[in-house]
Amino acid sequence: MTLAVGVLVMIVLLLIGYVLYLQLQLRRINRQLDKRLLANTRQPLSLELINRDLNRLAANINTVLKAEENLRLNSIREEKRFKELIANISHDLRTPVTAIKGYQQLLDRTPLSGDQRQKLQIAQKHAAELGILIEHFFEYSYLLNSEPEPAVERINLTNLVAECLAQFITAFEEKHLSVRFAESAPVFAFADKGMVIRIVQNLIRNGVMHAAGDMEVEVGIGGQTGLGEQAGAEVQAGLEQPAVIRFRNPVREASAIEVDRLFDRFYTADQARGRTTGLGLSIVRLLTERLGGRASASMKDGALEIRVELPSA
After folding, report:
1. Residues 6+ apart with CB under 8 A from 33
2. Which of 24, 134, 215, 268 is 20 to 30 A (C-alpha) from 7?
3. Is residue 233's pLDDT more than 50?
C-alpha cells in the first residue's frame, strides 16, 4: 500500500512538473510574440517542447507569421510601384498640357470671330481644369515620395483661412455661392504654413466643385460651441483642444456619398459622372496627418461637414 501511494505521489509530482514546464514554454511563446510586436523583429518562434501537438501549433504559428510577412513585403513593393506610377504619369502629362495652354494663348492673340472665341474660351476652361487635376497628381506623388519635413511655426489660423477664401471670390461668384465665415477670436496653431494653405485651398476647391448651396466656414478651438459633439466630449474628458477648421455645405445626392471613403485616393461619389481625381481630400488628410492632426467628415441633414484638427498654439 505504501509503495502504491509513493508511486502515485511520484506520478502526480511528475505531472505537476510537466504542467509547469508547459506553462513556462507558453510564457516563452508569449514573450517572443510580444517582442515581435513591440521590437518590430521578424524572428520565428523557437520552442523546447516535447508535446507533439504544441510543437505543431508553434510550427503553424510560424507559418502564419511568415505568410503575413510576405504579404506585408508585397504590399510595400506594390505601394512603391504605385507611387512611381503616379509620379511618372503626372510628369508625362504636365508637358503636353503646358503646350496646349501655350497654343491657346497664341490663338487668343489672333483675330477671331465671336463663335471661335467662345469655343476657345471653352477649351481654355477645360484645359485649366485638366491642369488642376494634373497638379493634384503631381502634388500627391511628391508628398508620397519625398515626405517633406514640416517647417512648424506658430500661425494665425483665422487670418490664413480668411486670406485663402478671399483668393477664391471669383470662383464663388461663378458658381453663385455665398460663404459665411463665422467671426471668432484669432485661433493659433503650430503647423507648417505652406501645408495649411494647401489644406485650406483643397477644402475650398472641394466645396466649390460639389456644394449644392452656400458654404459655412469656421475656425476655432475644439471645445468652442458649434464645432460638433465630439469637441464637447473632449472638453469633458479634459483633453488638450486642437485648432479646428470646419467646412460645411449641402450636397446633391447625399445618400450616394460614402463618408468613410471621402479621404480615400481616387474616390468619387459618382463613378460614372465624377470629374475629379478624388485626390484633393486625400491630400488634405495626408498633409493633416503629417502635421500631427487628423481630418474627418460627417453627413447630417444633407450637408457634408469636413473637419480638420491641428495642434493648437
Report:
1. 45
2. 24
3. no
How far is residue 230's CA from residue 94's CA, in Å, rounded to a whole number? 42
pLDDT tens-digit readout, 170-209 = 988 888 888 999 877 899 999 999 999 999 998 998 888 8
Question: DSSP assignment of 253-291, as one string?
Answer: TGGG--GGGTTSTT--S-TTT--S-S-HHHHHHHHHHHT
**Residues 6+ away with beta carbon under 8 Å from 258:** 267, 269
Rounded distance, CA 19 to CA 81, Å?
A: 51
Round to whole Å and give the CA distance between 262 and 280. Answer: 10
CA distance 162 to 185: 13
Query: How far apart, in whole angstroms, are the C-alpha atoms of residue 35 and residue 53?
Result: 24
Q: Which helix (H) or strand (E) segment is 304 a member of?
A: strand 303-310
**DSSP assigned state of 181:** E
pLDDT tens, 94-138? 788 888 888 888 888 888 888 888 888 888 888 887 887 777 777
The neighbouring-strand residues paired with 281 are none
CA distance 201 to 195: 10
Phi, psi of 83 (to 5 degrees): -60, -45
The helix/strand/coil state of 257 is: coil
- Strands 152-156 vs 179-181: parallel, antiparallel or unpaired: unpaired
Mean pLDDT of the chain: 80
Q: Which amino acid is at 120?
A: L
Does an H or E element contain 19, and which?
A: helix 2-38
Phi-psi region of 26 (alpha: psi -120 to 50; beta: other; left: phi over 0): alpha
Distance between CA atoms of 287 and 310, rounded to whole angstroms?
A: 10
Is the overall model pTM greater than 0.70, yes or no?
no
H-run or E-run covering 95: helix 52-108
Q: Is the pLDDT of residue 225 over 60?
A: no
